[in-house]
Model the fold of this input.
Amino acid sequence: MSPPATIATLFRQKSLPYFLLSRSLSRFSIQIGTVAIGWQLYDLTGSALALGMVGLVQFLPTALLVFVAGHAADRYERKRVVQLCQLIEALTAALLAWNACLGELTVTQIFVATFVLGTAGAFESPATAALLPLIAPPGTLQRATALSSGSVQLAAIAGPALGGFAYLLSPGLPYGIMVVFWLVGMLVTGAIAPARPEPVAEANEAEASDDLFAGVRFIRGNPAILGTISLDLFAVLFGGVVALLPIYARDILETGPLGLGILRASPAIGALAMTAWLARHSIDHRAGLRMFQAVIAFGVATVVFALSRWMWLSVMALAILGAADTISVVIRFSLVQLRTPDEMRGRVGAVNFLFINASNQLGQFESGLTAALLGTVTSAVLGGVATIAVALLWMKLFPTLREVDRLE
Done:
């Protein structure tokens, strides 16, 4: 039996650092753009509705192109798909930077750019996800996934701060940084050399349309994969307490803007800490049960945060929430990737990406609507309780998922 893989084993595969750097640069750009576009749009319109429309405009391409994007990730060389997306994103950011520096950036231009960035992201995400299993040495996908998740969390912590500071210096500077990050990311992606060849699908015109939906059929025919993807969808849908953080910071905890920043960073800090642990200690037994336990812990942490009136307890609850979510993410990604044939990972990953985006966007909407109807605290408590209930129900509905033991 071969010895367990270590972090050093992972990094001896030189393509993994390139992958992590490319993914980090893309995520930093997205986080910077979220802050810059939000501030710029609010400066131009003063409208909360306009800010809400940004999320919808970003989500639409994912919903419309999910099958095409997944098919592209399986039909063409994945790193080239990622590079093309990063180039399009860099050019879009360059146009935003140019118009912002000239003081000519309009609301219409911002929404068009947001739609283009959402379209590129819809293609980039499944191709990136399908690329990682080809890079990670056998038996190391969990640890590689944890490191990849850590790069995302690092961007979630530092990206908004970098974007906000750059915007204070000049409205065009954040977009300029995004251009540099995406172009560097494109070059780094080109240096990735997968350890295993990509089985690029060859499809004729008669088969192409049918192939677009192969990912959906595959997921429906695999209860463990269907269970883990749908569990994440409903758990995040009901547990979207992060959308209510401004209300908690101002009206409940009374901490002001600084407190809001700390609250927003807390889930990412907890996730980053769990990432460091999972990078060294993989989940070797009862992985399916561990995922359900993590989702239940997510729900419990949500309820604790909802009822807390102390800043220290709220920060701890959010950090635990982020750590539990990371466990779920690592198990879900590893299970889906390892149980999906490589020639279908793009199409399955695209459906997974759609579910993740839908849960995040609709979860924010659900939390806001429930808070408006029932009150903020009641909304957050119900969301946490619903998350726990979904986990318990899914344990009954998907026994195959509950009984998953080892992932690799």
User: Anything to note?
Assistant: The first helix runs from residue 7 to 12. Residues 15 and 194 are 7 Å apart (CA to CA). The radius of gyration is 21 Å. DSSP finds 17 helices and no strands in the chain.
